[in-house]
Amino acid sequence: MRNIFVLVLLSILFFACTDHRTPLEKSDFQKLTSHQDMMNYIKESSDDSDLMELDTLTLSNKGRVIPFIKVSTSGFGKDSNKIKVMIFAQQHGNEQSGKEALINIVKRIYESKLTYVLGKIDLLLIPQMNPDGSELDERRNGNDADLNRDHLLLSQPETIALHQLFKKYQPQVTLDIHEYRPFSKSWEAFGFQKNWDEQFGTLTNINVDDEILNFQKQKFIPYIQNFLEERDFTFNEYVVGGPPNLERMRYSTIDINDGRQSFGILNSMSFILEGLNGRTSVENIERRTEGQIRAVLGFLEFVYNNKNEIRDVIRKSREDALNLSKVAVRLEHIKGDEQKFLTLLNLKTDTDTTLLIDNFHAKVISNLDVEKPKGYLIPKKIVELKTWLDNHGIFYEVNHSLTEADQYTIENFVDSVDEELENQYPQVSSEKININPNDFYFVPTNQLHTNMLVIALEPQSQIGLIQYDLFKEKLTEENKYTILRIN
Predict the structure, then answer these.
(1) Is 393 helix (H, G, I), strand (E, B) or coil?
(2) Each residue of 380-417: pLDDT tens digit?
(3) Which among 264, 295, 327 is the end of a domain?
(4) How many structural domains comprise the chain?
(5) What's the whole-model pTM score?
(6) Is residue 364 part of a domain?
(7) Same domain, residue pair 320 and 444
(8) In this structure, are residues 253 and 419 in contact, taking their beta carbons and an 8 Å threshold?
(9) Which alpha helices (H) appear in 201-334, and where do they start and end?
């Protein structure tokens, strides 16, 4: 009897020592993981693993630590044959399953279940971008900002730190994890609902190299759809808008201010993942988390299987971008030739129904191209512009010998509607002027941010800095545009 007792006691102790369930699993999927529980779990995991190195990305607006984890079998970034991948989740605090999924990915790394993919991949994991919003189960951060609309402006510590991390390591592949809410009065009145477990979105700004856009569409989308459906999770290529045939639908935005497009415009292989949310953040959290886990695993498997081709495409695209002569600064989704079918949940019959979407705008065109200059002159007196350059890690020369530049005169503003949004469209002329080089920083366009610089700094750009309140008045003096061009 004593021996049996000892064996039982040893079994209990062994299980206690080896129980590495996530906080969500320990709660039997009844309680979302708090920031502190997440920090404790990933610290314990990384401390006991040779594969993980835990570090601090930054502090949130409310002072909470935002961690990131470097994952590698050989020391992050030391093996030039590997591909670098950055995955970040929960920019929106009320989208909880991405965080829970990445905590589970940490568990799998701890248990050596992903060691094979790490043979070709160095991984950056940021499980929670918005701890302040998460603790309150609210979308916005502790400063009431939408982080996923701040990736051009970079006004928040969370987004600033993420872009500085990207600039430091320059991963070839990025993934931004979200959840979508299919519940709305307009869709309910329409009688149908989006009901896919997982949606992946590719890049949609046409300034991104065609090789990247085609690779995502032709290779990744079919692969991940098959991967998920084989595991009984429904899939759709990410769409926004609708209801169908009442309002236009499209694959996504042309803006570069979110977590996918902002890295994609630097010619990275960037994606967004949108899982199906619940009516409450805890509703169906087990299924939601499992869907996100499977999506991330399929994503990593795809990168692993296509590592060499992805690296080659990204290297060539980043090099080719430096030589492009024109950049599209005003873009629009149009219908194009694609016939789009969507399988939606019929709310009356509770069955899936496939509809032809007549007003699906799949094609992006340019309404205005501008010649890319050799660089821009940024007035030193506009401190906010220098801060913006520094936050993005954009290279500029403090001392230079340039004495002549081209300056725009804004003749008038025309009201415009672009992408169904009201927009100011400046009509401009240009003339050469003499300048004092000591008054300006010189920003060459021959760098990683080449196309992004043109989109951000041109006055006629519908998604440039001039469209933001922070810069609108500072970028014009009377009718003169204060940022100058070096052609």
Answers:
(1) coil
(2) 999 999 999 999 999 999 999 999 999 999 999 888 88
(3) 327
(4) 2
(5) 0.95
(6) no
(7) no
(8) yes
(9) 210-215, 221-230, 261-264, 285-305, 307-321
Residue 252: which CATH number? Answer: 3.40.630.10
Enter the tokens of residue 195.
């009901």
Ordered alpha helix ranges (H), 238-283: 261-264
Beta strand segments in 419-460, E: 421-434, 440-444
Give the residue ranges of the chain where pLDDT is below 50: 1, 4-17
Q: Give backbone dihedrals phi and psi of 445, rounded to 5 degrees, phi first.
A: -85, -5
Assigned domain for 2 exists:
no
Q: Which domain holds residue 419?
A: 372-486
Specify whether the CB–CB gap between 54 and 65 falls below 8 A.
no
**Are 304 and 417 found together in one domain?**
no
Q: Is position 11 within any domain?
A: no
User: Residue 245's pLDDT is what?
Assistant: 87
Do residue 417 and residue 322 come from a single domain?
A: no
Question: pLDDT at position 10, please?
Answer: 38
Query: What integer pLDDT is reported at residue 14 of this predicted model?
Result: 41
Rounded to an integer, what distance in angstroms lies between the CA atom of residue 87 and that of residue 302?
14
Cβ 105 vs Cβ 85: under 8 Å? no
- Which residues are within 8 A (CB) of 288 and not within 5 positions of it... i.e. 6 or more apart? 97, 100, 179, 275, 276, 277, 278
pLDDT score of 430: 98
Last residue of a domain, one of 327, 359, 384: 327
